[in-house]
Design goal:
The complex is a heterotrimer of chains A (525), B (233) and C (359). Chain A has a domain at 23-98 and 260-482 and 490-514: ABC transporter involved in vitamin B12 uptake, BtuC (Orthogonal Bundle), CATH 1.10.3470. Helix content of chain A is 69%, strand content 2%. Chain A is built from 20 helices and three strands. Chain B contains ten helices and ten strands. Chain B has 233 residues and is of the alpha/beta class. Classes of the chains: A mainly alpha (525), B alpha/beta (233), C mainly alpha (359).
């Protein structure tokens, strides 16, 4: 060991050595591109590649969160695909049935208001006594009482919702209506109880739940004080809920009058918010107690995914349905399809470029969104303090904690970020692939394959792996249509589209066997 | 007046009983060396103080305040710096980021820059380099420097001389002496010569128990104790 | 059975064995009597109704019990891999599905006699374990989980693709599989089939407890707790893991075969990740690594599933999911595991109490 720095020449050769895997990836990519261009007709290659990039972009949105979470917390979040699915369903709801969103939001805001008064519940919880068994039963009792009160009171709020069993009220019918521009708010429902009583009962339910959770916490903390900040948060939530209740009808009229493009942007924002919140909740309530039991953590995420699927089936029904494309990407008629790459902004649904016809939404907007997220998250990781903490935590969370940083809070934030990205992917994918409860599993599998190829904990690896998987799938679909000449078959082999994911999995198995750490991953030293 | 006080601390890692009663006192402003054979529980003692492996029995007090059950980041923020063994710097972060991540308040690094780069002039030159490209000695310097960024009252330093060349050990000892002017130090050290020259006090740990403590000046002449607990001197 | 040593007669060793296994023997006896009791008490029919294969609760509950036995066999094999050896495989459903599909295709398309078909299943099961085994030396932990997930997902995709619909029936699966023999016919000879399945389960269970206590089981435990240490102790862990995989694969394929005979339909569902999760859930309920937990868990799981479905209909899956989450959080050792811990504590407490009175 010396303090002398290595010579420039040696450093350059080191640089090549360190980046060898990136060159390998690049070589594989180039090979795939060449294969795509030579294997199909000249006018098709561009759209094949763009379709691959589009699928890659969605896969990347799932894979990036998965990789951040796995890198920092060693949790392979098998519920990530279902968070993607949740994002799609929430996005569809905001986009198509905004009136239902408002109806649900009101009791939800009131229910969450008591949780802002955390110090109060901690003090009350501290007063309950300290025998562990007694606290446990008291906590569970409070939770049960709170859940019952909440359920009874929340169902008394007015709620207009779809009904999968009745075609006129089914999600698929609403999707058709929004496409035709005939969708309107449903006639509003009324309170089952007098409004004041329903609101107060919901507040009581929320308070019991908040108290119950704090009684169940092992730490007893009586030092905390309710400050003006807490009261302000409480007030804001309550006032927002009441204002929403008051202006519900004009608000719905206004939103339903907006162009679908604006409603789509609103849907994206709400999806990301709901996805992040769900992720944070899952981490705090279900993953955190299991950090010293990794296998159980894995099982837990599996169970959470299962529950999310069942919840979605309960609320939105089993049948699959579609989501229409926002107006800005759905134009037809004179002037369409757009010419060249400038056609992205023509408002047409398709454009012609390099002799291929592309869909502006799928092959334009989705890829663009993927690139924006890639740049955004890269900047977050490289340029901000929280990014620095995440990168350090990926390597050694214990040491980060020893520096005086609350790593658990960082864990929650990253889980929320990753879940938000997955939800964003879901709402982006919904207009092109539709909504179904199986969509999460498909993209989780693709994302896992992408991660395994790129290296489980490497963020650039997640991006490269996702693009590889997307391209590979689309190229195989193209090949499959014209048939692949195999030496031992008389006729060209035409794989059915359902076989396509298998090819990506095959690639994953090969990569994992050759490079167990993936292309970008650091092998353990 | 002792800054840090451990009283009959028991720590478990999983089902293994690692510390079976460690008591020690660290007087403010001094350097205390924690001695003992490999696997005696020295590193676990440091981790228990920081709450990384919390004590199941006994108490840890910092400046008279009970910190046994607090979360690690909370304990660290009370003014404890930690230099782990094996130079656990963040390999993916640059030297500057490795220092900046330790800031508790914005501007900590700027405030202490002079002290840090005075002790380790090499680091200033390497400031943009990723941690993984540093040599072993440089990594150890960085690990110590990182603990100096915030205003710490107490430094827990684990095996600073391990695997270093003699020239670097010399530099490291110089640095530890200089920084003990600012804060109290609890030092784990296998190299008895290094420990003997640096510390004023010693505590010997054997099989998870603190068995002997006193002034370093006495221990240096006490061949029997050295042989019995530390192997050949 | 224990070996006959000097000074012990065969008779006494048999008696020792009977004593050692008395719980299992009693349980088996009760299970044999169970259909008759149901027939007499619930259905109000005679004992002959059981032999005559009459409709009724007795016949229905035998069917449910056979499903539990199949699930128990399948979960046993997963417990051997995950609980005893610590290999986290996410591809276990494939072990079951390969058995089910192979046996079905051999009977239906290849029209083989059942003993031949069984031999083919055995060969395929071993081959498949070797396929999983190939990756063993290269990857550990999460990478092994991903590769097994990948292989199984590929199988799941391929089995329901239209390219193989002539053999595997694509998304509908295998239908119209003929009964392999008169006594292997769950529809017409349910009681006989019930006894056969019960016998197979009991034998496999005894084999598994023997394995867990044998040197192989000890090494498997060592691999689970710390593979590097097992390596350092001089065990070639690869061969041990491979043997475990082969045993588990054969067991799961056997469970799949029985499933094919019992149903007699095979859908791609049994190859899905969801079916691996079922195995996970079952051994989680029973207690990971306890062997007998797999059987307890299978019974609890199947009955819970059946009754929840009857009471709550479509929402029952949600409740099962919630139960699963609560189980992972609050009952990590499962029923058998928790019971063993409690029994130790009770024994411990009794000892302390005795010591108190003695002093």
């Amino acid at each position: 060991m010396t303090t002398a720095t290595s010579s420039p020449a040696r450093r350059r050769s080191d640089w090549f050595k360190e980046n060898r895997n990136r060159f390998t990836t690049l070589a594989i990519l180039v090979f795939l591109l060449l294969a795509a261009m030579s294997g199909v007709e000249r006018d098709d290659w561009f759209s094949t590649i763009m379709q691959g990039l589009s699928v890659g972009a969605i896969t990347f949105l799932v894979a990036s969160g998965l990789s951040l979470i796995f890198g920092l917390m060693d949790v392979l979040n098998l519920a990530h695909g279902e968070l993607f699915m949740l994002g799609a369903y929430v996005g569809w709801t905001v986009y198509t049935r905004f009136d239902t969103v408002v109806d649900i939001l009101v009791p939800l805001l009131i229910l969450s208001a008591p949780f802002t008064l955390l110090p109060l519940w901690r003090r009350l919880a501290a007063a309950i006594g300290s025998t562990p068994l007694g606290r446990r039963w008291a906590g569970l009792g409070l939770l049960a009482a709170g859940a019952t009160t909440t359920f009874v009171s929340v169902t008394r709020f007015p709620l207009v919702i779809w009904d999968p069993g009745n075609f006129a009220m089914s999600p698929s019918n609403f999707s058709v209506q929004i496409d035709l521009g005939t969708l309107a708010p449903l006639p509003p429902d009324t309170f089952g109880w007098p409004a004041v009583i329903a609101i107060l009962a919901t507040l009581l339910g929320g308070s019991l739940l908040a108290l119950g959770f704090n009684v169940l916490r092992s730490q007893i903390d009586e030092r905390t004080v309710v400050t003006r900040k807490h009261l302000l948060g409480f007030g804001v939530l309550i006032v927002t809920a009441i204002v929403l209740l008051a202006v519900k009808e004009p608000l719905n009229e206004w939103v339903f009058g907006l162009s679908t493009t604006w409603r789509f942007f609103l849907a994206m924002v709400v999806s990301v918010a709901v996805g992040s919140a769900a992720g944070a909740l899952i981490e705090v309530a279900l993953i955190r107690p299991l950090y010293d039991r990794p296998i159980y953590q894995l099982m837990m995420t599996l169970g959470v995914g299962f529950i999310l699927i069942e919840l979605v089936r309960e609320v939105w029904g089993r049948p699959e349905f579609t989501m229409s494309r926002p107006a800005a990407f759905n134009g037809t008629g004179p002037g369409c399809p757009g010419e060249g790459l400038g056609g992205f902004f023509s408002g047409c649904s398709t454009l012609e470029a390099f002799g291929s016809r592309l869909r502006v939404y799928n092959e334009g907007f989705v890829i663009l969104a993927g690139i924006v997220v890639l740049i955004g998250v890269t900047l977050l990781l490289k340029r901000t303090r929280i990014g620095m903490i995440i990168r350090a935590g990926v390597q050694d969370p214990e040491m980060v904690e020893a520096l005086g940083i609350n790593v658990r809070r960082v864990f929650t934030m990253v889980f929320a970020l990753g879940s938000g990205l997955a939800a964003f992917g879901g709402v982006l994918a919904a207009p092109s692939i539709g909504l179904g409860t199986g969509m999460g599993a498909v993209f989780l599998l693709s994302a896992i394959v992408a991660l395994a190829i790129g290296g489980l904990t490497s963020f650039p690896g997640a991006a490269a792996g996702a693009v590889l998987v997307g391209l590979l799938q689309q190229i195989i679909i193209r090949y499959g249509q014209s048939g692949i000449n195999l030496p031992f078959l008389d006729e060209p082999f035409k794989p059915s589209p359902t076989l396509v994911p298998a090819a990506a999995i095959l690639l994953m198995i090969v990569v994992l066997l050759v490079l167990p750490a993936g292309l970008f991953g650091r092998s353990e030293r | 007046m002792s800054l840090l006080r451990l009283d009959e601390v028991h720590t478990f890692i999983g089902q293994y009983h690692i510390l079976e009663g460690v008591s020690l006192d660290v007087p403010a402003g001094d350097i205390v060396a924690l001695l003992g054979r490999n696997g005696a529980g020295k590193t676990t003692t440091l981790k228990t103080i920081l709450g990384l492996t919390p004590a199941r029995k006994g108490t840890v007090q910092l400046d008279g305040q009970d910190i046994t059950l607090r979360r690690s980041f909370d304990i660290a923020n009370m003014g404890i710096g930690y230099v782990p063994e094996h130079r656990a710097i963040f390999a993916d972060l640059s030297v500057e980021e490795n220092l900046r991540i330790a800031e508790r308040n914005k501007g900590d690094l700027a405030e202490r820059e002079e002290l840090i780069f005075g002790l380790f002039p090499d680091l200033k030159r390497l400031i943009r380099l990723p941690g993984t490209n540093l040599s072993g000695g440089q990594q150890q310097m960085l690990a110590v420097a990182r603990a100096l960024v915030p205003d710490n009252r107490l430094l827990l330093i684990d095996e600073p001389s391990e695997g270093l060349a003699p020239v670097i050990i010399e530099q490291m000892m110089e640095a530890i002496t200089r920084l003990s002017e600012h804060s109290t130090v609890l030092l784990v050290e296998q190299n008895f010569i290094v420990a003997g020259r640096l510390a004023q006090h010693y505590v010997i740990i054997e099989e998870g128990k603190s068995v002997k403590a006193g002034s370093m000046a006495d221990l240096v002449d006490d061949d029997e104790t050295i042989k019995r607990y530390l192997g050949a001197a | 059975m224990t070996t006959v040593r000097d000074g012990t007669t065969l008779q006494s060793s048999v008696r020792r064995w009977l004593h050692h296994r008395r719980g299992l023997l009693i349980a088996t006896g009760l299970m044999v009597l169970f259909p008759f009791v149901v027939s007499l008490v619930v259905d109000g029919q005679g004992i002959s109704a059981v032999f005559a294969n009459d409709e009724g609760n007795a016949r229905f509950l035998q069917g449910l019990a056979i499903e539990i036995f199949i699930l128990a066999l399948y979960a046993l094999s997963y417990d051997l891999i995950l609980g005893v050896t610590g290999l986290l495989s996410f591809g276990h459903a494939m072990f079951f599905a390969v058995g089910a599909y192979t046996f079905g295709i051999m009977l239906k398309t290849a029209e083989l006699a059942w003993p031949t078909a069984l031999l083919v299943v055995l060969a395929v099961a071993i081959l498949q374990a070797l396929l999983f085994g190939v990756v063993l030396p290269r990857v550990k932990g999460i990478a092994f989980a991903l590769i097994t997930l990948g292989i199984a997902s590929m199988f799941w995709i391929v089995i329901q693709s239209s390219d193989l619909s002539d053999y595997a029936g694509a998304e509908i699966g295998l239908q119209g599989i003929p009964a392999p023999a008169r006594f292997l016919d769950s529809t017409n000879e349910r009681f006989v089939f019930y006894l056969i399945t019960l016998a197979i389960l009991v034998m496999v269970y005894m084999l598994y407890t023997r394995i867990a206590d044998s040197p192989l089981g000890k090494v498997a435990n060592a691999i689970r707790d710390n593979e590097d240490r097992a390596l350092m102790l001089g065990f070639n862990t690869f061969w041990f893991k491979l043997v475990v995989l082969v045993i588990a694969s054969i067991t799961a394929a056997l469970a799949g075969t029985i499933h094919t005979i019992h149903q007699p339909i095979v859908t791609p569902n049994v190859a899905s990740l969801g079916y691996t999760v079922t195995a996970l859930l079952v051994i989680l309920i029973g207690g990971v690594g306890t062997i007998s937990g797999a059987i307890v868990g299978a019974a609890v799981f199947r009955l819970l599933q059946y009754y929840l479905d009857r009471w709550f209909g479509g929402s029952s899956d949600l409740l099962i999911g919630a139960a699963y989450v609560l189980l992972v959080l609050y009952l990590p050792y499962g029923i058998v595991g928790t019971w063993r811990v409690k029994r130790l504590q009770i024994a411990d407490g009794r000892k302390r109490l005795a010591a108190l009175f003695r002093s």
